[in-house]
Design a protein that fits this description.
InterPro entries: Curli_assmbl/transp-comp_CsgG (IPR005534)
Number of helices: 6
Pfam families: CsgG (PF03783)
Strand order of the largest sheet: 10-11-14-13-12-15
Distance between the termini: 35 Å
Organism: Trichlorobacter lovleyi (strain ATCC BAA-1151 / DSM 17278 / SZ)
Protein name: Lipoprotein
Strand content: 25-35%
Structural class: alpha+beta
Helix content: 10-25%
Number of strands: 15
Largest sheet: 6 strands, antiparallel, barrel
Length: 340
């Protein structure tokens, strides 16, 4: 019976390789609060982590070639909005407000690293980041393939039908500007997307790009999709441990204030972080720094909208206590995840 359960689990996951197990469960009833669980981190996370305050971002329309003005940008803008809102947990301002910021500038910001974005500071209020972008190098083309006859070693021949392959490609450039300073908070390598579709035709004259905008829209969407992981990793969600418990055999679990509504799910990897105070002897100021302790997993057990349980690896058991921070990581999901 045990072997059947294991086989069934593997089949349900599509025989996905690299998985450490089919489930990440704990028997909560086996854990109780011990003397070790009454310890609290010496330095607590900053207040915005405790409050789970997410950045507020304005995603501006993307610059695009004049011949495609207003036709490629909306889809790209929406795609980046979905990543920022659902993947990064950012508060995204309404598109109308982002449009006003864009219109006030009257031109598209240069993506040159030396560009001056300082005037952004006077244009925004209560916004933490501005996302700028452009769509470049849009290209489409059609290739005709005539019918071809081929024969195998036994002399049996077959003839293929004439076909047409329509291709498109485009590059999406993204830059994140810190609104309070006008400085570049994050610059990404260009994301290039492509699309290719083949279909049967009766003659070469019928092989053409019928709707270049539709082809390029899909290429742009594919490019934006490649930005999902870099954006999520650049702007993770933060939470903190508020309770730990220990079993009689020394195993430990911890409760974190991140749940389903924060995009986490059972089996996800998250980072445990310890904050410490560091003194700048020159400026005579104190600041917080953080240090990664370990990667840990979110348990499937008792996963709520606003909290979850993490499983503490044995080798880090003595280091974990309430007051440590948790940072989400990019977790690909075999079944689609938040973006479906």
């Amino acid at each position: 019976m045990k072997m059947k359960s294991i086989i069934g689990c593997l089949l349900g996951l599509g025989i996905a390789s690299g998985l450490s197990g089919c489930a990440h469960t704990v028997e909560v009833g086996s854990f109780k609060e011990s003397e070790l669980d009454r310890k609290v981190a010496e330095t607590l996370p900053p207040q915005h982590v405790i409050d789970k305050k997410q950045p507020k971002v304005a995603i501006l329309p993307l610059g695009e070639p004049p011949e495609y003005a207003g036709r490629l940008s909306p889809g790209a803008q929406e795609g980046i909005t979905q990543i920022a809102a659902k993947g990064c947990g950012m508060e995204v301002v309404e598109r109308s407000q982002a449009q006003r910021i864009f219109d006030e500038k009257k031109f598209v910001w240069s993506l040159d690293l030396s560009a001056d974005f300082s005037e952004i500071r006077s244009m925004v209020n209560g916004i933490d980041y501005i996302v700028l972008g452009s769509i470049t190098n849009p290209a489409t083309g059609a290739k005709f393939t005539p019918s071809q006859t081929s024969c195998d070693s036994k002399g049996k021949c077959s003839t293929s039908k004439p076909s047409c392959t329509v291709k498109g490609s485009a590059t999406v450039n993204i830059r994140v500007i810190q609104a309070s300073t006008g400085s570049v908070a994050q610059a990404f390598e260009p994301f290039t997307g492509s699309v290719s579709n083949s279909f049967a035709v009766t003659a070469q004259y019928a092989c053409r790009v019928g709707n270049p905008v539709a082809v390029l829209t899909q290429a742009v969407a594919n490019a934006v999709s490649k930005a999902k992981r870099p954006l999520i990793e650049a702007f993770p969600r933060y939470g903190y441990l508020y309770r730990t418990m220990t079993a009689s055999d020394g195993r430990r679990i911890a409760y974190v204030n991140l749940g389903r509504l924060d995009g986490v799910k059972g089996g996800d990897d998250v980072e445990l972080i310890r904050y410490t105070k560091e003194v700048d002897r020159v400026k005579k100021v104190e600041r917080l720094t953080n240090q990664k302790i370990a990667d840990v997993k979110i348990a499937d057990t008792d996963l709520q909208n606003d909290r979850s349980i993490i499983i503490i690896p044995e080798e880090y058991s003595s280091l974990v206590m309430p007051g440590l921070a948790v940072k989400t990581k990019y977790n690909s999901n075999f079944f689609g995840g938040l973006f479906e």
